[in-house]
Amino acid sequence: MGLVRxxxxxxxxxxxxxxxxxxxxxxxxxxxxxxxxxxxxxxLDHDLNDEEEPVIINMPTGTGKxxxxxxxxxxxxxxxxxxxxxxxxxxxxxSDDLIDLKKYIGWRVIPxxxxxxxxxxxxxxxxxxxxxxxxxxxxxxxxxxxxxxxxQDENLQIFLNQFDRLIFDEAHHSEAPTWKKLRNNFIQRxxxxxxxxxxxxxxxxxxxxxxxxxxxxxxxxxxxxIFEKIQFEAVSEYYDDKSDGVVARKALxxxxxxxxxxxxxxxxxxxxxIKHARELKKLYTSLIxxxxxxxxxxxxxxxxxxxxxxxxxxxxxxxxxxxxxVDMFGEGYDxxxxxxxALHKKCKSLPIFMQLVGRFTRVNRTxxxxxxxxxxxxxxxxxxxxxxxxxxxxxxxxxxxxxLSKEKMVEEFFSSSIEGDYNHELIRKLFSSNSFxxxxxxxxxxxxxxxxxxxxxxxxxxxxxxxxSDNYISAIFKDDNLGIILSRKKVTPIWVCSDELQFDLFDIxxxxxxxxxxxxxxxxxxxxxxxxxxxxYVNFSFPELFRIFYNLDRSAFxxxxxxxxxxxxxxxxxxxxxxxxxxxxxxxxxxxxSNLFGHGYIDGKKASLGCSRKGITWSMSSANLYQWVKWCxxxxxxxxxxxxxxxxxxxxxxxxFIVENxxxxxxLTISPVDLISKAVNLIRIRGELGSKILNFSFYEILxxxxxxxxxxxxxxxxxxxxxxxxxxxxxxxxxxFILISETCxxxxxxxxxDFIKELPTKLGLVAWxxxxxxxxxxxxxxxxxxxxxxxxxxxxxxxxxxxxxxxxESWKFGTVKxxxxxxxxxxxxxxxxxxxxxxYDDGSNELADLVGFWxxxxxxxxxxxxxxxxxxxxxxxxxxxxxxxxxxxxxTCDKLSDAxxxxxxxxxxxxxxxxxxxKTRFILGQMSDLDALIKKYRTYDITIEMVLVQxxxxxxxxxxxxxxxxxxxxxxxxQTLHAETYYIIK
Length: 986
Fold this sequence. Notes:
Layout: E1 3-5, H1 14-20, H2 34-48, E2 55-58, H3 65-75, E3 81-85, H4 88-99, H5 101-106, E4 119-122, H6 132-135, E5 140-144, H7 153-160, E6 165-169, H8 177-188, E7 192-197, E8 211-215, H9 218-223, E9 231-235, H10 240-260, E10 266-270, H11 274-287, E11 298-301, H12 309-316, E12 322-325, E13 338-343, H13 350-359, E14 373-377, H14 381-393, H15 397-400, H16 402-407, E15 421-422, H17 425-432, E16 438-446, H18 452-457, H19 459-468, E17 471-477, E18 482-491, E19 503-514, E20 517-522, H20 525-535, E21 538-539, E22 553-563, E23 571-575, H21 578-585, E24 593-602, E25 605-612, E26 616-623, H22 625-639, E27 655-658, E28 667-671, E29 686-689, E30 692-707, E31 710-719, E32 724-732, E33 736-743, E34 748-749, H23 753-757, H24 759-762, E35 766-769, E36 774-776, E37 781-784, E38 796-798, H25 820-830, E39 837-840, E40 850-856, E41 861-869, H26 880-895, H27 899-917, E42 922-924, H28 927-936, E43 941-949, H29 960-977, E44 980-985
């Protein structure tokens, strides 16, 4: 068998058939769409030239790829052509399409009396018995890539050698091994390869190999009326076990509404596994009667080739309106009535998702079809991520799916929610792209009356950009007082003497008007200042700009520039410990100050800020446009707040000092986190135990002990399943870190011993003292606060510990109920306002002993309260009673710098504990509640509170040192986490 003819077997010769296709009409005179004509001309040009590289034709699903393929075969010089497709259904569709000449005659691609080409489908039976002379009779053979696995290698080469042209349809599959083998054969023989695809991305997210000769953008398809906007119906369900039901009800509601409006729409229910598809079929079947009086069958399409022929007929004839799919309907299958998509799970890859969404964007101008609708749970992590990937791959999807960005994830999709006047398509795409990031920086100008539109209309501005660039393009967003200019200039590298080698240099300028101030971000700051000079603008300067540092807590300044009055020295730069001395001695109104830059915390998050006397402000952080606008607005609010003294930032500064003798300090703990540290990522560390590969899980710094000028500590590296290695170190100012011993418990690491020796240095470890100085052990200098703090009485709760063995700390999963932790658990469970989730996290790498969550759904707020409990140490309220609490609390501050990651770690700990002991860490709530909470972290208002429990402390006996330590700890938590600290004592 091997080849199955699908044409009508004309008695005409090959030459007569080819001659029948000849037409006096030029391509531009045919009735193909403009996009199809453009693609066809590019293909014909490539077919005739000498280029050997495979080419890519990128046309979104529904814009006429098959029409271009057929027109290429009819219009190009005859070449025996092999067309390779990814599925049986597409093989049938494209071969049937090529013999349906009425369509192409109607489009005037071929004349009225054209003959069918000789077309065969390649099938597995007797495939190795195909002889070359039979192939030579063929015009076109259509095959799936899988069929070629049935060939013996020698016969495959003989088969392929009979063809002069290779066409891949849905070419994003072309990196599969078989596809690669086919392509390599044609490349070696210098034959033409055309790759048609709806997306230039492969299934693994990488770009297709080959030269892109034509790309039809989604935006153009929208402008030319081929695509239309999709109505996005977003639902928000944080519980996974309820998500399917909520999406299904909304989908059936939309189908009911459309049906009542006389629209013949079909609902596709999309998931990722056959098991889930069967569950969804049952779910929709059970819900249908609530929306439709007549019984309706829910179809199931789970095979690789999609929906079967019988079910296709049912859909076309309107016998049912709902089908549940795993892959899709099979690539290439077209059903115009597909107008509602219920997306329950993410697609396997971005290209498949692009194709899927693309099917619902196509315009069909019959009265019985209306606008398409997509329903999805946007708070589901995988769905949200896939929409972000879609927008990043091609910003034009923002045009088609508008409501998602307006109603959800405002920060990520800010660009699609504002309307602008663009003078060029490129800048619209640039602005709409979520991959567009800039450094937070702006030069600020004052006392400007014009709005953005007036500024962009200034002749001086136009002359300036015409002068500095070869050309420029712009966009204006009137409602937001925002404008963007992108300029391009041909430049010659400084290391080349000839003008023959030049490249395009692009610069971007963003203008934001706020009040009478103008913020300008420019990739070239010199050009910004020259432009401002041309426009006559005056920048802000010192001392007003110092107000931007007002809320930079625990600030440590890295650079200070001062213009000198000496003729010989015009500028002095200060770094490190010299900055504090110079700043505290300077008159801030002194015009000699040039620039200042530092790090610290703003609202509990690490931040950096800098400014110069020329009005330039900057940060080390990157931002999308939404974040940049918010950053500028925060600076505006501070600069114009006259209640902020210009020198107020000096109060937040940490005072640096050089460490000359460790014996002068009482070291409490060592951690890898502070504003002066740069932690190394240990995720690449692997362990081997026999044949088992162990992945890195986490690490802890333990057993910190000080002996005068030496500090001893251990770094414990944990792998999955609680395997671990321990490394003991000694630190001294003279010799630095020394590896003393290692205990690997039979585990072989995939890293060199030198890496382990240098690990403390790479981690940028800092030591915390009992006075809360922070010492960089690498740099051998530290920081201390200028002020002492004391305990706030209102934050202290005195508890009756009667009946509690305060020498026992751990609850031990309920076996020691009269412990310190047990008392707090009883207290939380018995109160009226009990937590929705109470998690028992006691153990190595704990976030806290107990973690409670109070969720207010009405106000969309979450309060996370972390309880650190310690057993009573003696009977006195000594510093020893609080030292370990301090160590644990500082560790928690480190972990909460990425709160979502910390919460996901709770899930891992629960799973590991249950696997080993069959016990749960949930005292209140369950895993589904924690899953929902993690999703809410993106959209709910979160507050964090720290509760430290020490039953040996008596408030009336607290000395000034203990009060100072507890007060300073509360201050650090407030500054670095934006969290309140409370104490439960005796």
